[in-house]
Structure formats: C-alpha cells, structure tokens
Design goal:
The chain is mainly alpha-helical. Helix content is 50%, strand content 3%.
Length: 150
Amino acid sequence: MKKNILTRGVADDLTSRALQLEKTHKAQWGKMNATEMLLHCNRANTQLLTANQPYQPPTLKEYMVRFLALYVAPRIPKNRKGAAINDTLGAAHDVHFDEQKSEFVRIVSKLAQPGNQFRLLHPSFGYLTTKQWGRAAWLHLDHHLRQFGV
C-alpha cells in the first residue's frame, strides 16, 4: 500500500524523522538549508490545512500527471522546482530553526487528524481528493527529509 500522511503511523514516522534534523544538516541536493526546507514544508502544508477552493474538474493532462506522480513514480525527482508561492530560498534569515521544526511537527499532526477535508488545487495535478492530498503530502515531506539525510 502507498504511504499516506492521513495514516497516523505514517505521520508519526515523518515526525520522528524531522526530530532528527539539525540546523547543521547539509542538503544532499538543491540549494535550501535545513531552516528554509522546514519553512517551505510548513508553508505548503499550512495552505493544505487552510484552503477552501472550489472543485474544478482536472484536465486530461492533470489527471495523467497526477496518476503517474502519486501512484507510479517512486519518488519526487531531485531538484524539481516547486510552486513560486512556496519558494523559501534566502527567506529564512528571520526564521528560527527550532520554531520551524516544532511547527513542522504540529502541522504534520494536524494533517493526520481524522475528518480532514483538503480543498486545494495542486499547481500540476489540479483538484485532488483528500486521500490524494494525503499521498502527495507524504511524497513531498519524504522528499525533503531525504534531501537532508533523515
């Protein structure tokens, strides 16, 4: 079965890995430092928790890309550029690592709470169901935790 952040054990595993992260960890790829990565993940996941966008049917291209990305490809490719709204490169100078790490843990716990309904359009995949968002969120967070070796 594919991992999904909606599963408490999977969310707990992500939290455990994040707690191993230190400010001094160096990225194995990409340009972000550990604080910028946490800020990036927190911004993306906060949008997921707070957005209430109306349903829009996906295009055929969105449907196909979504299926491949969520269920066929084993991981997000390294150095894949994300949405500009979540770009945090150079933005962490006023942000404290420990606060971002605590926020990461808090948000992951909220994402895994039963009864969530995620209503946010993905920039590449279009409208996703809550279950699909749970899978996408796990892939995204796993990608960045692996980026920093945890």
